[in-house]
Design goal:
- It is a single chain.
- With about 120 residues, the chain is mainly alpha-helical.
- It has one domain (about 5-124).
- The protein is about 80% helix and about 0% strand.
- It has four helices and no strands.
- The protein has helices at about 5-30, 35-55, 60-85, 100-124.
- α1 (about 5-30) packs antiparallel against α4.
- The radius of gyration is 15 Å and the shape is globular.
- The model has no long low-confidence stretch (mean pLDDT about 85).
């Protein structure tokens, strides 16, 4: 299977996303001593890796899964950010103001992945 330019960019974005997810899982487990959050992050990034593998195996289900997951992630991150900044809910150790760089990276990777996956979907 020959990947298009957008397909290659999507794979690179997903690889960086998986590295970032591994870092988050490690920080949750060892720095914050929060194994439940580490397991949740691990499950999310296992799903991303599964859909990326399906995409690389030339399955449209993988691309549809990536688009769906990224849409859900952007919506949930936005809701969490609004609730945390509006002081409606206590964000605890995942305060977006304290971890502004992680919040920015999460949005950037989600938007890049969503953009490249939609472009790759249109090309196939």
């Amino acid at each position: 299977m020959e990947l298009t330019k957008n397909g290659k960019a999507l794979v690179v974005a997903l690889l960086f996303r998986l590295l970032f997810g591994g870092y988050i899982a490690g920080m949750d487990q060892y720095s914050f001593n929060d194994p439940e959050s580490a397991v949740t992050v691990s499950v999310i990034y296992i799903l991303i890796a599964l859909f990326a593998t399906l995409f690389l195996l030339n399955r449209r289900y993988g691309l549809m899964g990536i688009i769906g997951l990224e849409s859900i992630f952007i919506i949930l991150n936005s809701v969490f950010l609004i609730l945390a900044l509006g002081q409606i809910a206590d964000p605890g150790m995942h305060n977006p103001l304290d971890n502004w760089w992680a919040t920015l990276l999460r949005y950037m990777f989600s938007l890049l992945t969503l953009t490249f996956s939609i472009r790759a979907y249109r090309e196939t």
